[in-house]
Specification:
281 residues, alpha+beta, five-stranded mixed β-sheet, 7 helices, 28% strand, globular
Length: 281
């Protein structure tokens, strides 16, 4: 009925059955056939994309395999470096300590990247499951803030946590919710040179809300528009200046898994506000 009114439906994905009984994935494009100014039928083009889906799956599986292989040596390197910094191999001079500290930072960044790639692989394959339980929203925020408070204060930034609605309990996967909050607070700190980072806990109807507002570099309207889009994130086009990247793509996926969402408001030079919403108990 929608097609006969002139609406064109593009690229809808379906599972179809071949004559031999096998199932394949296809994109179906449809539009209206007009005769004497009136709709007289429907034209459809069916494109078999099963091979393309197979290749996409192989790419995702390859990322997962490589990420697993990289985790062990990276963790091992960090362990050896920590041991040396703890003095197990003897006293270090200042230059050795400096170099080892920088090496540890590199390993930590690589470790974070590997974890991000694994999370993306799991999201893409649909094998990541949220363990939903009642979670006190304030406690999840406090856990996330605790990890970054020292670094934020060392930068000379104010960190304010405000709870406008008390004792909000949400239905969430505690680990994934905390991971999202950590990511957003880390980004806020990374791209804020002066001013403050404000974390506000509130509620809106049947949802618990956390807003993370910074006074940092902000993002242009163009960047905000494409911020969570898979194609832009994987293409690297979003990351310039705005702190976006794999972490935000994962954060969006994690929130969707929990029945929630994440949105952003920002302007270049005027800071950013990320808002997460999650169903209340």
């Amino acid at each position: 009925g929608r097609i006969l009114t002139g609406e064109q439906l593009e690229g809808n994905e379906y599972k179809l059955l071949r004559k031999d009984g096998t199932v394949y994935t296809a994109l179906i494009y449809t539009n209206t056939v007009m005769r004497d100014g009136r709709p007289s039928g429907v034209r459809a083009i069916v494109v078999d994309i099963s091979e393309r889906k197979k290749i996409e799956q192989m790419k995702t599986d390859f990322v997962a395999f490589i990420s697993h292989q990289l985790r062990t040596p990276t963790a091992g390197l960090m362990g050896y470096i920590d041991n040396m910094l703890d003095g197990i191999t003897g006293e270090l001079n200042s230059k050795q300590t400096e170099y080892l500290g920088e090496m540890r930072d590199v390993c930590a960044r690589n470790n974070r990247l590997i974890a991000d790639l694994l999370n993306i692989s799991r999201l893409e394959r649909g094998v990541l499951v949220a363990q939903i339980n009642p979670v006190v929203l304030r406690e999840a925020v406090e856990t996330a803030v605790k990890e970054h408070r020292k670094g934020i204060e060392e930068k000379g930034l104010a960190l304010n946590v405000v709870e406008t609605d008390r004792d909000i309990v949400v239905l969430a996967d505690s680990d994934k919710l905390i991971e999202v909050l950590k990511n957003l607070i880390h980004n806020a700190s990374k791209f804020t040179k002066e001013g403050s980072i404000d974390v506000e806990i509130s509620s809106r109807g049947k949802e618990g809300i956390v807003r993370i507002r910074d006074s940092g570099v902000g993002m242009s309207e163009e960047v905000v528009k494409d911020l969570f889009k898979k194609e832009k994130v994987f293409g690297g086009a979003v990351a310039v200046g705005g702190g976006a990247g794999l972490g935000l793509y994962i954060a969006k996926g994690f929130m969707k898994l929990q029945g929630g969402d994440i949105i952003v408001e920002s302007a270049a030079g005027k800071g950013s506000t990320f808002t997460i919403s999650i169903p209340k108990k």
